[in-house]
Specification:
With 328 residues, the protein is of the alpha/beta class. The protein is built from 10 helices and 11 strands. It has a 9-stranded mixed sheet. The protein has a two-stranded antiparallel sheet with strand order 10-11. Strand 8 (265-267) and strand 9 (275-277) form a beta hairpin. Helix 1 packs parallel to helix 2 and helix 6 packs parallel to helix 7.
Length: 328
């Protein structure tokens, strides 16, 4: 495998402007403060993004209301540990804005917290759990054993409250050898009433130098395909993030990109008064090999990160042909 000159790489085009409509969902970050210390953290690490004051957060709720949003996904860092978390939730309710959350789940280990969230309108949750084994989970999350168990308990409590759930598992060298076992654990422990999302790691955030996430698709692809088969046999729904369709050998696979709940717009972390189309951001960060031009799955495919193409190349991508209905 070798890097391809940037001039030969292909990109999708998405408008930098996207109107807000009834289906629009804003990604609303409460700051990058977090009580996990994940070595692969995808946040920016900018000091000014670490903590957003309550008055600024409430101004952002009002801004989103004025722009016509009726749903947001709260994220962080870890949004539930912000001291103004419930104040923001109450403000969203008063503004008629529904809310979902992207979380590590630990706060929801408190049953009262989980119940209050559901009663306050929590509709959907993305919870990250990268391994069922305690030791790898502690390394990936940067937490104690208690932190790992809190996430597992938080998942159980959210499901018990009837919250629609997506489990988020990012591949790394700490868990890639037991992903199939992880899928079976999830089915045995949590049942099948949720979606399990497998994620190829991003190296664009402050944790991008962590060697354990410097995987290749040649390593991760076979694991993802076997895990998908285990999930299919168990009746567990599965989604993917940042896995090209040809790597999955599924031309019609659902690939969420970075917007697991269909988020359409990103609220500026710092200014709080600008929004950007998420599909534009994602296409700016993703590329395709020259061989992908004729692929029949390219409309669905997320491509590869431009940083990955610069480091590894795109030789692993084998397009689905359109001739005579043959796949590849």
């Amino acid at each position: 495998m070798s890097a391809i000159p940037e001039s030969r790489l292909l990109k999708k085009l998405r408008s930098a402007d996207r109107p807000v409509d009834a289906q629009s969902i804003a990604l609303f970050r409460l700051g990058e403060m977090c009580n996990n210390k994940c070595p692969m953290c995808s946040n920016s690490g900018r000091p000014e993004a670490f903590f957003i004051q309550e008055d600024a957060l409430l101004e952002r709720v009002a801004f989103l209301k004025r722009r016509g949003f009726s749903r947001v996904v709260l994220t962080g860092g870890e949004p539930t540990i912000h001291p103004s978390f419930w104040t923001v939730v109450d403000a969203l309710g008063k503004a008629g804005i529904a809310w979902d959350i992207n979380t590590h789940g630990r706060s929801f280990a408190d049953r009262a917290f989980a119940a209050r969230a559901q009663e306050s309108g929590l509709g959907r949750a993305i919870v990250s759990l990268h391994s069922h084994r305690v030791e790898p989970s502690m390394v990936i999350f940067g937490v104690s054993e208690r932190g790992h168990h809190e996430t597992v308990e938080g998942i159980e409590n959210l499901l018990a409250q009837g919250v629609w759930l997506m489990l988020n598992c990012v591949f790394s060298r700490e868990n890639i050898d037991h992903i199939e076992e992880y899928v079976r654990f999830c089915v045995d422990r949590f049942g099948t009433g949720y979606v399990l999302k497998l994620v190829f790691p991003s190296t664009t955030g402050k944790g991008g130098d962590w060697e354990a996430i410097h995987l290749t698709y040649a390593e991760a692809g076979p694991v993802a395909r076997r895990a998908a088969e285990v999930a299919r046999e168990a009746g567990l729904r599965m989604a993917f993030e940042s896995f090209p369709n040809c790597v999955l050998d599924q031309p019609r696979a659902r690939n969420t990109g970075r917007s697991g709940f269909g988020e359409t717009h990103y609220l500026d972390d710092i200014s709080g008064d600008r929004i950007y189309p998420i599909d534009h951001i994602e296409t700016e960060l993703s590329v395709y090999g020259p061989q992908c031009a004729g692929c029949r799955a390219v409309r669905r495919c997320a491509g590869v990160a431009s940083t990955y193409a610069a480091r590894v190349g795109t030789d692993e991508l084998v397009p689905y042909l359109t001739e005579s209905g043959r796949s590849r």
